[in-house]
Amino acid sequence: MPSFLSRFRNKAGAGPTSKSKSQPHLNGNAPAPPPKPRWADAWLRKDVEPDEVQELLRGCTSELKQRALDMPFLLLPFRPASDPSASRTFIRNYFNEERGLLQGERLAQELMLTEPMVLSGVMKWCWSRLAGGVVTWEAYELFRIGEQDSEMARDAFATFIPLSVESDARTKIIFDFFDLMAAIAAHGKTNGMGGRKLSRLAGWWAFEQVDNGTGFDGGYKSWAR
Fold first, then answer.
1. 29, 101, 122, 147: least surrounded by Cβ within 10 Å?
2. Do 53 and 123 meet the contact criterion of CB atoms below 8 Å apart?
3. Minimal CA–CA distance to 135: which of 168, 163, 175?
């Protein structure tokens, strides 16, 4: 069985090896990065970068832990009384191209004034648009190997997750994700979302669910993995 160290070295060493990619351009200038796609409506975005939403997700996590842990079925999708328009308005306001992203005190104030169900919708919107999901299968596999190599050390999660992902922002998002899940599960008797139910639901956001063209059966098999 491969060790975490060997897997980590392979991951760190992987990269472009072709001559055209490894050598600088003849004119001495590095190639310009491809422009980021511009969205007329932020709500219609298909993906977000971890560093774009990390502060937002941390703020939402803090607010929900303070105000909404006893709210019945907080993360359940398709609630009959839910209205996505408020979450849509928040996302459009957050991704404002003229002003830039909401940050710092302005963001904290907006979050305090926003209803918990709206914050829940905002979080789910962000989670579902992170490449590979919140955790990604690659990060999970590296963590799993590291945990086994450490003989299930108590601090394996805090130790190996930062080594298994590509950025500090992704690490913080993963930690906050599981922090919120644990807090909600601890209040399962009042909010109706115990650990078993919540873990099954969380799988939709933790790992990317790919549409392979086989409909419900294919989606269920991907989720059950």
1. 29
2. no
3. 175
Q: pLDDT (tens digit, 9 = 90+) per residue, 159-211?
A: 999 999 999 999 999 999 999 999 999 999 999 998 888 988 898 899 987 76
| Residues with pLDDT less than 50, the chain | 1, 15-24
Measured distance CA(17)–CA(26) in Å, rounded: 18
Residue with tokens 């945990």: 147
Residue-by-residue DSSP string for the chain: ---HHHHHHHHHH-S--SHHHHSPPTTSPPPPPPPPPP-SSGGG-S-B-HHHHHHHHHHHHHHHHHH-TTSTTTT-SS-TT--HHHHHHHHHHHEETTTEE--HHHHHHHHHTS-HHHHHHHHHHHHTTBTTTTT-HHHHHHHHHHHHHTTS-TTHHHHHHHHHSS-HHHHHHHHHHHHHHHHHHHTHHHHS--HHHHHHHHHHHHS-----SSHHHHHHHHHH-
pLDDT of 101 reads 87
